[in-house]
Design a protein that fits this description.
The protein is α+β, with helices and mostly antiparallel strands. It has a single domain (about 15-130), classed as HIT family, subunit A (2-Layer Sandwich). It contains two helices and five strands. It has a five-stranded antiparallel sheet with strand order 1-2-3-5-4, covered by helices on one side. A hairpin with a 3-residue loop joins strand 1 (about 20-25) and strand 2 (about 25-30).
Length: about 130
């Protein structure tokens, strides 16, 4: 794990640990405070690190394992879930607003949007439907 310092100005560094719903050695999971859909959660490193591209291969494998674990939990809790979006924003121009790595795991349900085709391509709406 990166040795970037803890930041007292960061909402994820100052998070109430009671909000943690799951964890691994270097990451924790919370539910998003402004969810896109019910069950939307964030996978976050314990240590403050601004850019997801600074995670090494072992850390990314740990993120993936935690995402799979949360996917199973969400599916078990809500059978209406029929898909997921997984991703992160890296940099201001990509929409990042909290500069502490966090990976979004967003449950999707049939009919939650009229035209889901293109998924994450919707970050640029004119390019979503192809």
């Amino acid at each position: 794990m990166s040795t970037k310092a803890h930041s007292s100005a960061c909402p994820f560094c100052e998070l109430d640990k009671l909000e943690i719903v799951d964890r691994s050695a270097n990451f924790f999971v919370i539910y998003d405070k402004t969810p896109v859909t019910p069950g939307h959660c964030l996978i976050i490193p314990f240590q403050h690190l601004a850019d997801a591209f600074a995670l090494n291969s072992a850390e990314m494998a740990e993120v993936w394992d935690l995402a799979l674990k949360m996917r199973c939990k969400l599916l078990a809790d809500d059978p209406s879930i029929s898909g997921f979006n997984l991703g992160c924003n890296s940099g201001i121009d990509a929409g990042q607003t909290v500069f502490h790595v966090h990976i979004h795991l967003i449950p999707r349900r049939h009919g939650d949007v009229e035209k889901p085709r293109g998924g994450v391509r919707g970050v640029i709406p004119a390019r979503q439907h192809y």
